[in-house]
Amino acid sequence: MKHSMSTGNRFFKTLLLCLLIAVPVTGLAAGIQKEEVQITQKQGTLKGTLVLPPSQKQCPVVLLIAGSGPTDRNGNSSLSGQNNSLKLLAEGLAEKGIATLRYDKRGIGESRFPALKESALTIEDYIQDASKWIYYLKKDPRFYSVIVLGHSEGSLIGATAARQCAADAFISVAGPGKSLQTILLEQLQQNTSKEYYLQSKCIISELEKGHTVPIPDSSFAILFRPSVQPYLISEFRYDPAIEISKLNMPVLLVQGTHDIQVAPENGRILKLAAPKATLVMINGMNHVLKLSAMDTADQIATYSNPHLPVVPQLITTIASFIKRIPALKK
Fold first, then answer.
1. Which of 31, 38, 168, 290 counts the highest number of beta carbons within 10 A?
2. 117 with 87: CB under 8 angstroms?
3. Average pLDDT of every residue of the chain
4. DSSP state for residue 310 in the 8-state scheme
5. Closest among 308, 330, 328 to 320, alpha carbons compared
6. 312 three-class SS
7. How wide is the angle at C-alpha 225 spanned by C-alphas 121 and 227, nearest 5°?
8. Can you tell me the mean pLDDT for 204-229?
């Protein structure tokens, strides 16, 4: 694919690259309940959904952190469509007796931050928001342990927040093992013209130094528009493998063999960084946690199919890990 690729294909090949309120809501199957929750802070309000298993006993709770871009609490992106991956994961875990809280990132979905500008956003903002939710869950007497699960870029955010807030365990699902700039350069080299790649390399080099730069033309705006450069600068400071290596808690790494956004090798990279972690490769699972062939058409179809279930092995793997956490912490 050359420099003239369409915006849609560029996404899949390159961009693939404190007031607390809870309102109970019923109506889910098999006695599962949900509560709409929120954290109000000075700049705006974070909103999320707490899903509770049928039993009224104390249980573990998992904080689900969505991936990059305009991705909401359900795992749906305005760029790729509705797949409900995180919503389906939450409901599947509830059937296993595990509660979850998933939330819209600031400026996404119902988490409205009226004065928020893209140029002012950094990855530290997302880490801070995840930390607030961890502390919120720790204060809730219904839960005896708090586990953080990050999907895709949410893995980096979650690992950092889990360490800062002393969560009980961490789960990375489809998490990158390489820094964002490394992934971008690899994808650009494979899928764009030599000229586009070399100009992008120069831009990335300057961003790594903390310098914002003008873009050569509008074709670079999807990745390097001036308003997103401060966010890139902030994330370029982090290496997911290093963040995983800092964790002193049980860690589960889950990677799909058919993930065309975050290749399976990333799971092995994270495992090398955290030798005590458990690595599970799920055959046929793609980036939105669905079974898929490797061809692009089949992959794209799963990104916009909210009725296709998440891979059952993902739910059983996570549930089994959570049940073993007390033994793993000894």
1. 290
2. no
3. 90
4. P
5. 328
6. helix
7. 30
8. 96
Long-range CB contacts for residues 117-122, cutoff 8 Å, separation at least 24 = 117/227, 118/227, 118/228, 118/231, 119/226, 119/227, 119/228, 119/229, 119/230, 120/230, 121/230, 121/231, 122/230, 122/231, 122/233, 122/234, 122/235
Tokens 């960084």 label which residue? 273
Give whole-number Cα distances, 171 to 2, 68, 237, in Å.
36, 17, 22
In order of their start, the domains of the chain are 7-179+238-328 (3.40.50.1820), 182-233 (no CATH)
Host H or E run for residue 155: helix 153-165
Going by pLDDT thresholds of 50, 70 and 90, the confidence category of residue 28 is low
Q: Is the pTM of this model over 0.70?
A: yes
Q: Are 118 and 228 in contact (CB under 8 A)?
A: yes
Residue type, 178: K
Between CA 319 and CA 324 the distance in angstroms is 9
User: What Å distances lie between residue 109 and 45, 69, 153, 255, CA to CA?
Assistant: 11, 12, 18, 27
- The position carrying tokens 């916009």 is 304
Considering only CA atoms, give the Rg of the chain: 19
Read off the DSSP letter of residue 104: P
Closest CA relative to residue 312, chosen from 151, 145, 91, 97: 91
Q: Which residue has the higher pLDDT, 20 or 225?
A: 225
Q: What is the pLDDT of residues 133-168, one digit of tens each?
A: 999 999 999 999 999 999 999 999 999 999 999 999
